[in-house]
Amino acid sequence: xxxxxxxHDIEDSLVLFLESAIxxxxxxxEVYPSYAFTRCLLFGRHAWWCxxxxxxxxxxxxxDSLRLAIARKRIRRIVMMLSPGADSASSRQAGDRFxxxxxxxxxxxxxxx
Length: 113
Prior knowledge:
alpha+beta; two-stranded antiparallel sheet; two-stranded antiparallel ribbon; 3 helices; 4 strands; 35% helix; globular
């Protein structure tokens, strides 16, 4: 049958996914230098992770502060806005927005027949 996860496991996974999604945006949009990121495996897929201690602590703290709201299903979406880069080499554009949307409650998976 389908994998059964505890609510705590699901919350941990969502927080970890959110952290990685933010790090990926920061890397791809060149908010920080590329040497501040490393590739890692997350949920069996390659993902970006920030190795700068201050950035990592900030993002992890931000995501952890959302844990209770995520557990209570009070967050529908998270919007990350980026301002244009100060240097002309930046790939950021004015008003870049990245959205992580949490799906509404769905019905449980049925057991295979």
